[in-house]
Design a protein that fits this description.
- 24% of the residues lie in helices and 44% in strands.
- It is α+β, with helices and mostly antiparallel strands.
- It has a single domain, classed as Nuclear Transport Factor 2, Chain: A (Roll).
- The two termini are 26 Å apart.
Amino acid sequence: MSVDAFTLISRAQGSYVRAIDDGPIEDWPEHFTDDAFYTVTTADNHRRGLPAGVIWANNKAMLRDRISALKEANIYEPHAYRHLLGQPAILSEEGDTVACETSFLVIRITGNGPTDIFASGRYLDEYVLGHGTALLKQRVVVCDSSRTDTLLVLPL
C-alpha cells in the first residue's frame, strides 16, 4: 500500500463529506472524474449483482443535474447530514488507479425533529490519482439496510 495513495484518498474523502455536510453542496460533483459512475444501492442488491440503485449516475453532468434539482426543483423537509467515516482500506493499486473500501455512518439532522441514524454501509471506490489529488472514477454506495425511511435527497 502506498502511503501517498492513502493520504490522497483520506483527504479526498474528508473534502467529499464536508461538501455534503457543510456545503457548498455544489462542490460535491467536483470530487468525481467527468466519466464517473455513482450509485446508491442496498447490500442485498449488491450481493445479488442487481444493477438497480436508489441513485444512479454515469457521469459528472448527471451529478451536477442532481444538485441543480435539489436546489431548484425538489421539495423536501429541510435536513442535514453528518458523515462518520472509517479509514479507507486500500484493496488494490494499479498505475494511477486505486480501489478501496470505506465504512460510513450518516446521521440526519432535521430542522424541527430529532437527530437520528439515517444510513450505514460502505463505499466501494475506484480513485484516479494525479497531480496531488484523488478523484472518484466510481463510487458504489452500499447501504446496510434495504429500507430508507424518507426520500434520499442529499447524496451519501
